[in-house]
Specification:
The protein is α/β, with parallel strands linked by helices. The chain has 5 helices and 11 strands. The strands form 4 sheets. Strands 1-4-5-6-7 form a 5-stranded mixed sheet, sandwiched between helices. Strands 2-3 form a two-stranded antiparallel sheet. The longest helix has 17 residues. The two termini are about 20 Å apart.
Length: about 160
């Protein structure tokens, strides 16, 4: 994981982001604490994005516990993974987590958001926006719809 973290941090810095880690612990009002792998700040607009880097070596239950801790302190974050196989596993975990919160609609109404991307997807796109996708979401007929920017050669982490 250290290699992926180093590569991702270097890439984000070249794209104009300030990257902080380990010292970036957050605690919410009831004492829940979580540490980000990377917190990326967009120097131009001052927005930040919590990023977790995962290699897929935990069980579904362990990931759900970890992601719940992050959601306690940060409503929106991205998970960067090395391969498509691990990406699918993490997406399955996120799906299970959403079911625990009452489904996709309930998860969205609570303001929670978890994006899962491979490192290759991050690096292959030229335009990066580390701000939340929240502005690109809408509720249509009580269904939660997320605009997929990956197909448009733009990635939002």
């Amino acid at each position: 994981m250290a290699k992926i973290l180093k590569c991702l941090k270097q890439y984000l810095k070249r794209q104009g982001f300030e990257c902080h880690s380990e010292e970036s612990a957050r605690t919410n009002t009831i004492g829940t604490k979580a540490i980000a792998d990377i917190i990326a700040f967009n120097v131009k607009d001052g927005k930040k994005r919590w990023i977790e880097v995962e290699e897929g070596n935990y069980s579904t239950e362990d990931y759900i516990y970890k992601f719940k801790k992050v959601l306690d302190v940060e409503r929106s974050f991205a998970v960067i993974v090395p391969t498509i196989k691990i990406q699918q596993h993490i997406k399955d975990v996120v799906g299970e987590l959403k079911r625990e919160y009452g489904g996709v609609d309930a998860f969205a109404k609570l303001g929670y958001e978890i994006d899962v991307c491979t490192l290759r997807e991050v690096k292959s796109n030229t335009k990066h926006n580390l701000s939340s996708r929240r502005s690109r979401k809408r509720i249509i007929d009580n269904r939660y719809v997320k605009t997929c920017l990956l197909r448009k050669k733009q990635i939002v982490i």
